[in-house]
Amino acid sequence: MIEFNNVSKVYASNGVHALDNVSLKIDKGEMVFIVGASGAGKSTFLKLIMREEKPTSGSIIVNNMHLETMRRSKVPYLRRTMGIVFQDFRLISKMTVYENVAFAMRCVGKRNDAIKKRVPYILELVGLADKAQDHPSELSGGEQQRVSLARALVNNPEMIIADEPTGNIDPEMSYEIIELLSEINKRGTTVLIVTHEHELVKSFGKRVITIDDGRVVSDTADDRFVVI
Amino acid sequence: MSSFGYLIKEGFKNLAHNRLMSLASIGVLISCLVLTGSAIMLTINVANIVDSVGDTNVTKVFLDDNMTKLEAVYKGKELKEVDNIVDVQFIDKDESIEAYREQLGDEVFANMTGDDNPLPYAYSIVMDDLSKYDDTIALIKNVPGVASVSSHRDVAAKLTSLSSFITTMSLWIILALGIISLFIISNTIRMTMFSHRFEISIMKSVGATNAFVRVPFIIEGIVIGLISAIISIVLIFVLSDAIISAARNILDFPYTRFTEVMWPIIGIFCAAGVVVGALGSAVSIRRFLTHEGNEVLGW
Ligand SMILES: Nc1ncnc2c1ncn2[C@@H]1O[C@H](COP(=O)(O)OP(=O)(O)OP(=O)(O)O)[C@@H](O)[C@H]1O
Ligand SMILES: [Mg+2]
């Protein structure tokens, strides 16, 4: 669950008003697309949710935690409730697919026997069981993004946050990735996707939040969103 | 592999990855530790020499040159009556010259016997309370017929002041080297952290705590410290043995060898290595991990 109340974000370094008085609510189990032009403030929105940035004003509640007052030492525990997927996959090239996914479990102190059970299960879920021992460089873009998705899922988060997950992969593969995220959403995980690909968004018929110049200009439950 | 084992492995990998900086850190730390160890060994041995000189507690009293043997022997009674003197031992000048002859060969001393003996009669005396040393010496000098007094004390005092001078000098150098090694280690770790910033950003994005992220880097610092400590211990072992063997030729004395005092020193070295390593890395990590923003998406 995500709740923004009158949230504004001004970057202190250059004075850019990245978000302006944003209020919105995303319930548990929803699947939401966030669209908008370059520089609109989409990534800033995600950074605020994962507490990489603090809001300049307003309040943010994510998975029952108040982010504007949260102490630094609690941030890792907030992040454990979310899986983050990046446009550029962010896989460690020296590690195999299996190790990349297991790494996320090691980072939160999971035990070896738990890792041995969980990682193959998740790799199966994203359809990469047979690539477990490959290195990222041996995979296609779509496959690499599925590894990244597996890593985001492996610690069983309440939500998945994806910043342009299809930005670096070709269209057919993109559809598969969103399809996979939709599958994950059906199992109860909240899914937040920032994307430029309007056609893709339309075909899923989910809630779409449009941000323009730091403001929410449209928030619709289907594909009738405003195209900027 | 447990997550802790994984981290230890990462620490070693970092070390190998940054060979040059690691070697620099180890080198400076070694010079710091070897100097510390040498200062410790020097202080121990000088203290021992000074102690044993104090133990033998021998002070020689030389009598006037023109005194006959009979007069000289009588002086013994007078000396024994001096306050604080518990024992006096007559040193016959004929015996002394014989001893020299035996040691150094006949020729020089052949015509120095009898009335031609240039040595004075002397006594070696033993004091009861060494803290009254100076007063007692003054009293002895007041006894008529006493020409001069000599003792190892002056040597002991000179040795002690020399050793404390060297120790003070070493302390400053050790302090400077210690700070330099902290600085170099912290820079080494900062470099490894920088080259691992990608992994760190992933760790942070999946919710690793700062404590967890820093473990491999602290381990790296500790490994640097421990390697330095071990090499330093070996160096001091070899070095002190060589120096003691050389010193034997100058002054034969039961010197304290490194092996006799090594355990506390090894303990101190390992502790120092661990502390310097951990501290050095902690400093850089703190700076690295507490910068706000851009830690996940910004890389
Ligand atoms: N760390 C930062 N420091 C200063 N300004 C920033 C920072 N991050 C973003 N901005 C500015 O804030 C505004 C919004 O940026 P943001 O990254 O949220 O846009 P975006 O919608 O994700 O764009 P894109 O589609 O290109 O990724 C931009 O003007 C950007 O220059
Ligand atoms: Mg962006």
Largest two-chain interface: A-B, 32 and 25 residues
Order of helices and strands of chain B: HHEHEHHEHEHHHH
The ligands bound in this entry are:
adenosine-5'-triphosphate, magnesium ion
CATH topology name of the largest domain in chain A, in short, is Rossmann fold
Q: From the coordinates shown, what is the CATH architecture of the largest domain in chain A? A: 3-Layer(aba) Sandwich
What's the shape of chain A?
globular
Overall mean pLDDT of chain B: 81
Text of the CATH class of the largest domain in chain A: Alpha Beta
Q: Which regions of chain A have little confidence, pLDDT < 50, spanning 5+ residues?
A: none
Inertia-based shape of chain B: elongated
Number of helices of chain B: 10
Helix content of chain B: over 70%
| Oligomeric state of shown chains | heterodimer
Radius of gyration of chain B, rounded? 32 Å
Question: What is the end-to-end distance of chain B?
Answer: 29 Å
- Terminal Cα separation of chain A, in Å? 27 Å
**Topology pattern of chain A, helix = H, strand = E:** EEEHEEHEHHHEHEHEE
Number of strands of chain B: 4
> How many structurally independent domains of chain B?
2
- The total count of helices of chain A amounts to 7
Structural class based on helices, strands and sheet pairing of chain A: alpha/beta
Topology summary:
The complex is a heterodimer of chains A (228) and B (299).
Chain A: E1 2-10, E2 17-26, E3 31-35, H1 42-49, E4 57-62, E5 65-66, H2 75-79, E6 82-85, H3 97-107, H4 112-125, H5 141-153, E7 159-163, H6 171-186, E8 190-194, H7 198-204, E9 207-212, E10 215-220
Parallel strand pairs in A: 3-8, 3-9, 6-7, 7-8
Antiparallel strand pairs in A: 1-2, 1-4, 4-5, 9-10
Helix pairs in contact in A: 3-4, 3-5, 4-5, 5-6
Chain B: H1 3-17, H2 19-56, E1 59-63, H3 69-81, E2 85-91, H4 93-104, H5 106-109, E3 122-127, H6 133-142, E4 146-151, H7 153-195, H8 197-205, H9 210-250, H10 258-289
Antiparallel strand pairs in B: 1-3, 1-4, 2-3
Bound molecules: adenosine-5'-triphosphate and magnesium ion.
Magnesium ion is lined by residues 42-43, 163 of chain A.
